[in-house]
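Q: For a teaching handout, I want to show students what a protein-ligand complex looks like in C-alpha cell form. Below are the inputs, and the small molecule is flavin-adenine dinucleotide. Please produce the holo structure.
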Amino acid sequence: MTPTSAPAILRGGEWLLNPTTDSEAVFTPERMTDEHRLIGQTAQQFVDNEVLPVLDRLEQKDWALNRDLVKRSAALGLLGVDVPETYGGVGLDKVSSLVVSERMARSASFGATWGATANLTVIPIYLFGTEAQKRKYLPQLLTGEIVGAYGLSETGSGSDALGARTRATRQADGSFVLNGEKMWITNGGFADLMVVFAKLDGDQFTAFLVERPYGVKSGKEEHKMGLHGSSTTALIFQDVHVPAENVLGEIGKGHKVAFNVLNFARFKLGAACAGGAYGAIGEAAKYAATRRQFGSAIASFGAIKHKIGEMVSRTYAIESLLYRTAGLVDARMAATPHAASDGSAALAAFEEYAVEASIAKVAGSEALDFVLDENIQIHGGNGYVKDYAAERHFRDARVNRIFEGTNEINRLLIPGMLVRRALKGDLALIPAAKALQDELLGPPSLPASGDGLLADERQATEAFKKVALMTLGLAMQTFGEKLTDQQEVLMHIADIVIDSYSAESAVLRASAASAKRVPRADLQVDAARVFVNDAAMRIDAAARQALAATVEGDTLRTMLAGLRRLLKVTPINTVAPRRRLADEAVSRGAYPFAG
Ligand SMILES: Cc1cc2nc3c(=O)[nH]c(=O)nc-3n(C[C@H](O)[C@H](O)[C@H](O)COP(=O)(O)OP(=O)(O)OC[C@H]3O[C@@H](n4cnc5c(N)ncnc54)[C@H](O)[C@@H]3O)c2cc1C
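A: Here is the structure, written as C-alpha cells, with flavin-adenine dinucleotide included.
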C-alpha cells in the first residue's frame, strides 16, 4: 500500500506554537483511500459476523474460542497491519492501523484479547527484536498459532512501572532465571509468549521474551467489572529459565521497550475508544427513535437531542485528532528512508508524536465514557439492566482510563514532555512563550476580523493554543525545576492542551470538508462549532485555576487580563447545531461521520 500522501510534517507538539492555516495539510477521514476503507470493512465484517454472535460464549470465558478468533483475525491480515510482509504481516500504514483498531473495538472483550497480541506483543518484537527473534516469533504470532501477553505491572508497581520487583539472575551459561509475579495481565490465562520486564542483577530493568513452557504459571482469573470475555490473571515466575538470546532490546534498557510500546498502544487505544463511541451513538440514536414517552419518540425532546448532539460533537473531535495524528506519523515515516523490514522509522515516529498519543488516549477514553454514560441515560431503566448492551459497554470501557498509563499519568506526561523538549531545544516553546508574554504586555492590537466559514472558530483555536503557551510558560518560569511537584497546575495545563488539539483538529477537518464540498459538510461545521464553543468555556476555567495556582497579586491580575484579551470567544447558540447533529444521527441510526 502507498503511504498516506503528504500532510506537512510538523514535529510533535509543534502545532501548539504556530497557526495552522492550511487545512489541506491535515489528514482527515475524508481523505481515506479505498485500501483504508477495505481493511476497515474487513475488520468490521469480522467483528459483526464472527465475534458479536458468540459474545456470550466469550463472556463465559471460552478461551479456546478466543484463541480460534485470534487465528481467524490473523488469517484476514488484521493482526499484522503494522508489520511488513517479510515477517508475516501485511505492512499497511498507520491510518489503516487506526481504522482496524476502531473497528475491532466493537468486538467488546475480544478487542482486549486481540490487542494484547497485536499491539503489546507483536509491536515490541517488531520494534526491538533481533532478526532471529523476529523470524522465530512474528510468523507464529501473526498466524495466531501462538497468543501473546505483556507483563509489566505488578502488585506494587502499576504506574511506577520501573519499580518492578520481578528479578532476573544471569547464569554461568549466559541464560537467565526469572523470579517474581506480574499482575492483571491480559491473556494471562492462556498466552504462549510473554514480553516480561524484570530487573537483572537488582537494577537493570530489562525486557525478556518468555515462552510459557519455560515454566510460567498463571494465577486465577480476576473478577472484573467488565471485559468478562478477556482473560486477566497474574503471571507467576518461579525459577523460570530464559535463554540468553531472549533478551528483548538491550539489557538495562527495558524502559525504552516499555515506553515506546506504550506510545503506540495509547494512540491505538484512542482509536478503539473512538470506535466504541461510534457504535454507542448508533445505539442511543436507534433507541431514542423507537422509545416513546408522553406520546412522542424521546428523540423529539430537546434534552435528548442535546445529549445526542453532544455525543456526536465530542466524538467528531476525537476522530479528527486521531486521523490528523495518524497522518503525521505516516508522513514522518514516509520521509524517513528505511527498509520495509526496519521498525526504526515507526519507533522514531511514535516517539516524536508521544504527546499526541497521550492526548489521544486521555481524550478518547474520556469522550467514550461520556458517550456511554449518556447512552445509559437515554436508555433509562433499560440502560441499567443486562437485556441491553448499554450496560456492558459502560462496564467494559471503564478500564480505558486506567490501563496503558492512567489518565493522570498521561496528563502529567503531556506538559512534562513538552517542557523536556523545550529544554532540550527540540521545540521552540520558550521563545514562543516569551513572544506571547511581550504581546500581552504591549498595547492591545485590533482583533483580526476573520471572515469566511469557521473564521471565528479558527481564531478561537489560535487563542486556545496561546492560553496553553501562556499557562505553561508562566508555570515553567515560576516553578522552574520544581514544576513536577505542581501536579494540580500540570493537570489544568494538560486539559488546555488536550482541548486545543481536539478543537483545532475538528475545525481544520470541517474546513477541509467544506472546501471539498464533502456530503453533509454542514454537519461537520456544526460539530466543530459546538466543540469550540464549549472548549472555550472549559479552557477559560482551567486557565483561571492554573494561573491562580501559579502567581498572585498584581501578577495574577495582569495574567487574568491577558487571558481575557486572548479568549474573546463570544458564545454561540448551540441549540440548533446540536439538534441538527442529533437529528442526523437519529435518522441514520448511526454516528453520522465515520469513514
Ligand atoms: C483489565 C486490566 C487489564 C490489564 N492488562 C495489563 C497487561 O496486559 N499488562 C500489564 O502490564 N498491565 C495490565 N494492567 C495493569 C494496568 O496497566 C495498571 O492497573 C495501571 O497501569 C495502573 O496501575 P495500578 O493499578 O497499580 O494503579 P496505581 O499506580 O496504584 O494508581 C492508583 C491511582 O493513583 C494515581 N497515581 C499513581 N501514581 C501517580 C503519580 N505519580 N502522580 C499522580 N497520580 C498517580 C493513578 O493515576 C491512579 O488514579 C491491566 C489492568 C486491568 C484492570
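A: Two things your students might notice: The CA atoms of residues 372 and 393 lie 7 Å apart. Confidence is low (pLDDT under 50) at residues 1-7.
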